[in-house]
């Protein structure tokens, strides 16, 4: 009886998901296929667009900038976000709610407004440089904008909530009695962190880190405003190729490379650590 009702429930679930699947097929799968076809047919049939991306030094530098900045942003976000996520998981309810409110408020604020705010803060006459000069730490203003430093600072700020929230959910699943047992067995704070808390929170770190890295690969607004033209990233290149140069073939090839890298990273995570959300 139970075996007969199980396929029926599964069919009902697929039926409910059908509108969303059709939406994805029409507005994601079909455009991706069209983009792939244009990348190998324009201006002529072949793989010359991909050869151009690989062989041209300028495009190679843009790929390097994109992956390097994404890796640095992910590493810094993990270092800054880990203690915040842990703090949110152990704070009393009211204080945790306030912390969540601050994080969500930063997410809900308009992206352009946040990026322009960083432009004001990081410029030569901004608050950061003026404060450092007033404290006697620097004599001349630091160059914090129109370079990769500005891009990294702005993107870390924007990406922090996307790491903190999934990691905090992982912390919530860890039984505090395990840490108490480690302490009773003689483990110090560092040992309890390194041998108990860190391994148990690893699925959350990987899920949050993958989200941040993949989002950073395709980010457009913040690198365009804080990075300047000499530090272009891949999303800016695609926009310029399609909108300004009308080179859909080369733009499609760059976009398809970005998509393949993203799917490959996701496949690696699923292969070695399981699909996100199925850790338990």
How are the elements arranged and paired?
Layout: H1 2-41, H2 48-55, H3 57-90, H4 93-108, H5 111-122, H6 127-134, H7 148-172, H8 176-184, H9 189-217, H10 221-226, H11 234-244, H12 248-273
Describe the structure in your own words.
Helix content is 80%, strand content 0%. By secondary structure, the chain is an all-alpha fold. The chain is globular and about 70 Å long.
Low-confidence stretches: none
The number of helical elements comes to 12
End-to-end C-alpha gap: 28 Å
What characterizes the major β-sheet? Answer: none
Helix content: over 70%
Keywords:
mainly alpha, 280 residues, 12 helices, globular
Brief overview:
The chain is mainly α and 280 residues long. The chain has helices spanning 2-41, 48-55, 57-90, 93-108, 111-122, 127-134, 148-172, 176-184, 189-217, 221-226, 234-244, 248-273. The longest helix has 40 residues, at 2-41.
């Amino acid at each position: 009886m139970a075996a007969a009702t199980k396929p029926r429930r599964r069919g009902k679930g697929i039926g409910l998901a059908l509108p969303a699947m059709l939406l994805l097929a029409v507005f994601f799968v079909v455009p991706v296929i069209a983009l792939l076809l244009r990348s190998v047919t324009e201006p002529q049939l072949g793989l010359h667009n991909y050869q151009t991306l690989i062989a041209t030094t300028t495009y190679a530098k843009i790929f390097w900038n994109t992956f390097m900045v994404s890796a640095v942003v992910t590493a810094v976000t993990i270092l800054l976000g880990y203690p915040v996520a842990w703090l949110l998981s152990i704070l009393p309810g009211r204080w945790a709610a306030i912390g969540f409110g601050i994080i969500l408020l930063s997410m809900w604020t308009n992206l352009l407004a946040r990026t322009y705010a960083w432009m004001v803060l990081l410029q030569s006459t901004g608050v950061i440089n003026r404060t450092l000069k007033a404290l006697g730490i620097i004599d001349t203003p630091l160059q914090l904008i129109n370079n990769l430093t500005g891009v990294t600072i702005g993107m870390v700020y924007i990406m922090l909530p996307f790491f903190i929230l999934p990691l905090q959910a992982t912390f919530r699943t860890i039984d505090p009695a395990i840490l108490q047992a480690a302490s009773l067995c003689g483990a110090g704070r560092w040992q309890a962190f390194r041998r108990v808390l860190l391994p148990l929170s690893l699925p959350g770190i990987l899920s949050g880190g993958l989200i941040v890295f993949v989002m950073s690969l395709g980010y457009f607004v913040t690198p365009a405003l804080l990075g300047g033209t000499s530090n272009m990233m891949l999303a800016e290149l695609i926009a310029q190729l399609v909108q300004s140069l009308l080179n859909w073939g080369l733009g499609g090839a760059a976009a398809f490379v970005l998509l393949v890298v993203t799917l490959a990273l996701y496949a690696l995570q699923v292969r070695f650590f399981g699909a996100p959300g199925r850790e338990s």
